[in-house]
User: Fold this.
Amino acid sequence: MARILFLGRLADSAEASEWSVDLPQSTMAVDAIRALIGDRNPYLAEELGRATVRVAVNGELVLPGAVARQDDEIAFLPPVSGG
Amino acid sequence: MISVQSEPFDAAIELANLLREAGDAGAAVSFVGVVRGEGNEDGVTQLELQQYPGFTQGRIEQIASEARKRFGLEALTIIHRYGTLRVGEEIVFVAAAAAHRRAVFEAVDYLMDRLKTEAPFWKKEVRPSGSRWIEARESDVRDRQRWHEAQG
Assistant:
């Protein structure tokens, strides 16, 4: 199972701060994972699609085009509030 | 020493620890940030700060490393709390030691400008009327940018 984390305001739309998702393939592009989540939740689809939302895989920020694996932790980070 | 923690800290003890660590440094400065209330009926009663465990610490360590190099610091402590914090509670402690005072005044100012805009926290202000997620203020962003210009 992949752990999908929704930080900040994204958890409001996701209705949870974390989802466990069985990815349909053992390796998937992060963009495809984003689309899969968006299919389940149209509010999230819109928010996750914003350029200001960054993605981290296993705690490291990734560029568009990155991939993730079945047991990875994929976090969606909206713009930070700062300290 | 960089710590992201939910527990309160004791600024006096942390400054004393830093001074001990800094050995023969001639100057040290410390800063404490406190949750502000707004005094009116619908003022903020508490702040909820969310971190991303590991990630938040890592990013703050990176910022600290850049400050150490830029200002030639002998020692540096950053403590940032997360969780539910009430008005009047201390949120953040930044202290630096170096050979001379100009570097430490600037380093702590620099670090607060960077933390206010870049530290990976997500904050919710809780008021009697409800809660709302907040973003860095424009004045904080401008303050952060002046360090780009200063560097030239």
Remarks:
- DSSP finds four helices and eight strands in chain B.
- The mean pLDDT of chain B is 92.
